[in-house]
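Service request form, structural biology core

Requester: graduate student, group of Dr. S.
Request type: structure prediction, single chain
Budget code: on file
Notes: please return the result as structure tokens.

Sequence provided:
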Amino acid sequence: MALKTGDICYSVQWTGTRIEYCEHVLRTIRTRKHLTYGYWWCKIPGVTWGKLSKTHGDYGWLPGAWPGFRRKHPIDRGRPYAASKLGALRDEIADLRVTIARYGADEPYDEDGGPTLGDQLKAALAAQKRMRKSK
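Core staff response, request fulfilled:
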């Protein structure tokens, strides 16, 4: 399936054992030197997306957003993120299982001594189960 401007993808971010979904929107597609790139922006209310003026219903992309919220990705390689929230969660569970196989389930996720990898895997599996039941 061809990507077009306005396509939405999702990724997972952790806050302790709580899962937050980050929505990424393909804002522009550029071709330079025979390569086609897409710029994916993380849609964060109040930071990259918000009210532009006092006009009723005037919402959009805020100017001057930090470039760290943008990712350049070649279009011919497909989507850099998952197409749905469930797909993003599935990718995160696979990554956690690989990390646990390498380092063990008792290792903390961060250096700050937060939740362990095993705790995060349990939380991710529970979230996946809840999401599948709701559909």
